Amino acid sequence: MIFNQIDSFGQFSSLKDSPMFKNNKHNIFRETLTNTYYEMSEMDSLYKTGKSPFQILSNIKKGDSIVWMIKFINEDDFTIKSQWLNKKFPLKDFVDIHNIQIKTSELTGKFLIIYCWSVSCGPCIKELPYLNALKDSLNKDNYILLGVTFDNSVSIRNFFKSNQLNTYLNDENPSFAFRIIPNQKEFLNNVLGVKSYPTTFIVDKKGFIKQIIEGVNLDEQKKPKIYSEIMETLKRIE
After folding, report:
1. 113, 180, 217, 237: which is deepest, by most CB within 10 A?
2. CB 146 within 8 A of CB 112
3. With contact defined as beta carbons under 8 Å apart, do 180 and 156 qualify?
4. pLDDT tens digits, one per residue of 137-147
5. Angle at the Cα of 75 (from 78 to 128), degrees rounded to 5?
């Protein structure tokens, strides 16, 4: 799990407003390099100054508390664009959440939209309705939509059945129209090197990465721009 402060929480004026940090839990932050602990009030003060960007690496649940393992980082470390733009996407065989294999040959010669996400990433979940709209806008013969995550199949299924998600999205039957690829921690961390969630790769028919969208960008109404960002890129590269 890797969430950047700016990309994943930038839409919130306070960390306390993020659904990631549950109000009924005691949230504690542990800086892994120095083993320093911060209370929510301390981290929120740092967050509001914008001078101490951080990554969430993992978390540990202890009774009524959640300990968030963090690392303070430089803003230059936020992006992987210089590493991947106009490079070949490292295709491989996948197995989706329904245990159906997706061979590399099926992905070759198609436009690919690869969305790197997690059920524990609030900004990712907020984008789902806008991503789902892509399915109706794009010809399925030319485009493949993949949702790649380090989460396992059980946690994903349970998440989509949760009342919390229904309330968050104001949808009685929330879904994700992308083909969900679970259990991809090694691929996300060590092959792609994803630094923040969500991260979206847009790949042309020749297999080259033509756009990388890191984090969530909001319009003037504070709504995610992911649909228009993807459609504008596809229009440019088609």
Report:
1. 113
2. yes
3. yes
4. 998 889 999 99
5. 40
- Taking the C-alpha atoms of residue 52 and residue 129, their distance in angstroms, rounded to an integer, is 32
The length of the chain is: 238
Distance of CA 22 to the CA centre of its chain: 19
Closest CA to 83 of 182, 168, 170, 191: 191
Chain segment 24-57, per-residue pLDDT in tens: 789 999 999 899 999 999 998 988 877 677 878 8
Give exposure, 140-156, as e/b (b: 16+ Cβ within 10 Å): eeebbbbbbbbbebeeb
d(Cα 148, Cα 188) in Å, to the nearest integer?
A: 8
Sign of the CA dihedral running 230, 232, 236, 238? positive
pLDDT in tens, 55-90: 788 889 889 999 999 988 776 667 899 999 999 999
pLDDT in tens, 3-27: 554 445 555 678 887 777 877 789 9
Going 219 to 223 to 228 to 233, the CA torsion angle's sign is positive
CB 9 within 8 A of CB 47: yes
Q: What is the spatial distance between Cα 113 and Cα 199, in angstroms, rounded to a whole number?
A: 11
Both structure tokens of 71: 């690392």
Instruction: Indicate the helix (H) or strand (E) that contains 157.
Output: helix 153-160
Per-residue pLDDT at 89:
98
